[in-house]
Amino acid sequence: MEIALRPYQVSDVEDFMEWCDDEVVRLSRLRHFTSREDAVSYLKETVIPHPWYRAICLDNRPIGFISITPGSGDERCRGRITYALGSKYWGQGITTVAVKKVISTVFEEFPSMQRLETIVDVDNKRSQRVLEKSGFLKEGVLRKYVIFKGNIYDVIMYSLLSTLT
């Protein structure tokens, strides 16, 4: 079982639609793609032009994504990491491997970035564990911080500093 990261391609559309299942949609900002054309459009307009959006691949088949969004201007010292994995692959350590692969190079790829951060729903224990196993520190709870699918949620802020990798 080889886990690799690579840029998405339009030809990944079938795999993308397969792993982006109901459980993933429920817990992430991704939406359900009902047609191949809709998914191709999303890949072409959002995923492929993104500065750092990678497929999490198992034996070269996309089963999720991981992305880094670098800050700009006065916020160029930090970036945000986000990820999602097809639900049938949860609990196998795959996301942890992917996050560790990213943090091994992200500060070299983005030299002005000193901090990598993310927020996680307070109830998403699996994602919290991924971050903790990858070396991220829990900074605290941000109460009523984000509106997600019409509801306001508390989240936990996690960060990793370049000096700690």
From TrEMBL:
Q: Which InterPro entries match?
A: Acyl_CoA_acyltransferase (IPR016181), GNAT_dom (IPR000182)
The uppermost taxa in this organism's lineage are: Eukaryota, Viridiplantae, Streptophyta, Embryophyta, Tracheophyta
Boundaries of each N-acetyltransferase domain copy?
Answer: 3-162
Q: State the superkingdom.
A: Eukaryota
Q: Does the keyword Lipid biosynthesis apply?
A: no
A GO molecular function term, named singly, is: acyltransferase activity, transferring groups other than amino-acyl groups
**Alphabetical list of Pfam families matching this protein:** Acetyltransf_3 (PF13302)
- State if Transferase is listed as a keyword: yes
Keywords of the record: Acyltransferase, Transferase
**Per its record, how is this protein called by name?**
Putative Acyl-CoA N-acyltransferases (NAT) superfamily protein
